[in-house]
Amino acid sequence: MHLTASDTGTERGATWLKAGGLRPTRQRLALAALLVGDGQNRHVTAESLYALSSSAGEKVSLATVYNTLRAFCDAGLMNEVVVDGSKSYFDTRTDDHPHFYWEDSHRLTDASAEELEIASLPQAPEGMAISRVDVVIRLRKA
């Protein structure tokens, strides 16, 4: 049996969902295939994933896309990166790494962590633990 690119993407999506302990509903499978089906990491907004799913012929509401992205984050499959306190990007790459935010095109891309040095962090308030540090480097034309 020969797998098509679509079959491979669906298979990768199903494996990804299983790794997060999520039930592979039709909508989750469709969105997972769009996010990780080609093996590349993605930075998406709910709106951009909704547009991508619509252009792929998937019948998924924007509310479902939001809820599914939250479920993917809760399962540890993605990280949410908030820019400007209101714009959320969802990243399929979950290791610690910084990001570039391109102000002119409103894109988020990975930045190299090799030159990034964080010497120390403030102590967390009593009863709290630092879960993650997001570094977003904003870029604009010089």
Automatic annotation (TrEMBL):
<dbReference type="GO" id="GO:0008270">
    <property type="term" value="F:zinc ion binding"/>
</dbReference>
<keyword id="KW-0804">Transcription</keyword>
<dbReference type="GO" id="GO:0005737">
    <property type="term" value="C:cytoplasm"/>
</dbReference>
<keyword id="KW-0408">Iron</keyword>
<comment type="subunit">
    <text>Homodimer.</text>
</comment>
<protein>
    <recommendedName>
        <fullName>Ferric uptake regulation protein</fullName>
    </recommendedName>
</protein>
<keyword id="KW-0963">Cytoplasm</keyword>
<dbReference type="GO" id="GO:0045892">
    <property type="term" value="P:negative regulation of DNA-templated transcription"/>
</dbReference>
<keyword id="KW-0678">Repressor</keyword>
<keyword id="KW-0862">Zinc</keyword>
<dbReference type="InterPro" id="IPR036388">
    <property type="entry name" value="WH-like_DNA-bd_sf"/>
</dbReference>
<comment type="similarity">
    <text>Belongs to the Fur family.</text>
</comment>
<keyword id="KW-0238">DNA-binding</keyword>
<keyword id="KW-0479">Metal-binding</keyword>
<dbReference type="Pfam" id="PF01475">
    <property type="entry name" value="FUR"/>
</dbReference>
<dbReference type="GO" id="GO:0003700">
    <property type="term" value="F:DNA-binding transcription factor activity"/>
</dbReference>
<dbReference type="GO" id="GO:0000976">
    <property type="term" value="F:transcription cis-regulatory region binding"/>
</dbReference>
<keyword id="KW-0805">Transcription regulation</keyword>
<dbReference type="InterPro" id="IPR002481">
    <property type="entry name" value="FUR"/>
</dbReference>
<dbReference type="GO" id="GO:1900376">
    <property type="term" value="P:regulation of secondary metabolite biosynthetic process"/>
</dbReference>
<dbReference type="InterPro" id="IPR036390">
    <property type="entry name" value="WH_DNA-bd_sf"/>
</dbReference>
